[in-house]
Amino acid sequence: MLHELRAYYEQDREHGRLREGRGRLEFWRTQDVLRRMLPPTPARVLDVGGGTGVHAKWLAADGYDVELLDPIPLHVERARELTGIAARLGDARQLPVPDESVDVVLLLGPLYHLTERADRVGALAEARRAVRPGGLVVAATISRYSAVHDGVRQGFYLDDGFRTAADSAAAGGIMRSPRSGFTAYFHEPEEIPLEFADAGFPEVKHYGLQGAFWLYGDVDDWLDDPERRTLMLDALRSMESVPSLLGVSGHMLTLAHRDR
């Protein structure tokens, strides 16, 4: 699994994903939810699987004490170039930090790269170990049907290989992508709280990030226009936790506090 990830991410294909195009919708919505839910600065944030620092950068600028962990050397190298961020190699399943030593643990990528449920629960349990009582754990997941939705939108679904992979993901959660070359896990909204519960978090909050808007053909035009972008983000905020809409989003955020 790690070999697959390194082969993909060492191509430096992740660096611009949330910084341009419709990926900005996921970025701005993640930022929006986190800014409403994070504790006051200067809380200590552990950004696990933080890539090249797309979120760590604004968190540090906001005044948080940010440490980024990532299993990809290129990502760590790039993140170290950012101001105010400590970055080192690390694995979500075995965090190199003491018990109860941080205020927030972000898992904004690891869970969908862990195809075994035991590994996902283990990563959440590690986050719980690392965070202080009352602290916050946030995890991102990919929605079960996102490959079918995005494949139809972009035309990939016409390809037999992609269609087979997307249909398999919709049926069982495992996405073996013929385009990226790695295997990922896509969640049903209702299974995420069960994984959190098994890791010691009895209560969670769910947020759909992009709603159905990420599938619209003119979404880039809305994101490029500050006035229309504000309207879109306000609309998404108003329906972000509606249960019937969660799985339509390409990505979901789940938040939980460690019991005191």
UniProtKB/TrEMBL annotation:
Domain Methyltransferase type: 46-138
Protein name: SAM-dependent methyltransferase
Pfam family, one: Methyltransf_11
One Gene Ontology biological process: methylation
Gene Ontology MF, one: S-adenosylmethionine-dependent methyltransferase activity
Protein keywords: Methyltransferase, Transferase
Upper classification of the organism: Bacteria, Bacillati, Actinomycetota, Actinomycetes, Streptosporangiales
